[in-house]
Write a structure and sequence with these properties.
48% of the residues lie in helices and 15% in strands. Helix 1 runs parallel beside helix 4, helix 4 packs parallel to helix 5 and helix 10 runs antiparallel to helix 11. It is of the alpha/beta class and 258 residues long. The chain is built from twelve helices and nine strands.
Length: 258
Amino acid sequence: MSYQNVLVEHGKIAKIILNRPEKRNALNDVLLREIPQAFYELDQDDEVRVIILSGAGAGFCTGADMMFLMSNPGVMESRQQKTGVGDMLAAIGKIGKIVIAQVHGFALAGGFGLAVTCDLTVASEETILGLPEIKRGLFPMNVMSPISRCMPRKRAIELIFTGENITAKQAYEFGLVNHVVPPADLEQDTWKLAEKIAQYSPATIRLGKNAFYTINDMEYFKSFDYLIEMLTLTTLTEDAQEGVKAFFEKRNPEWKGR
């Protein structure tokens, strides 16, 4: 598939690169359509184990393209237009591959939400993150859901309602990113994390990721019933059988992805 505003690289560790550097990778209608398309394309590629999402140029993503965001052709058309961010964020949780955000420079507004929504997030030390929407009479409606689920409630409210930026170190302390590294090490350290995950069974990762996100909204005791079913399903996979067999035979498992 050909893309206009993203670069897609296939492989065991695949890459999606936001490619509007002249616009600070602002999310326009094309990017909002192409990002989930790229996720679903890579999800269907059996060779791909992990996906790294990054931004070209000076930073990761500055959020929505303001000209696009504020174009209001009509109520229903405008509503349809604004579903793009939600569809993009939802795609990350729906696919069976782990997505790692490789963040540098800035991740603001919708770009902040995109970085945080990824399953794992690695940020360089100089990265600035924030939700400045309130300063423009707007509000981070779409990205508020994933962000508020990743950090303490009071911290989230302060971040959203003051519009102040935070450093990568603060984002780490709030639970919004997994690792903060020197800029020179960002690509290498993100790749190492991807390699660590890519060595495991793709079938187990798909089932496990689906279970993890499903129980987020599940009543506590019901979640145990659901997880019993998911564990049963996992143990019946060929990869689980191979993993246990390899353990007893003291060798590395050979995953089939099923």
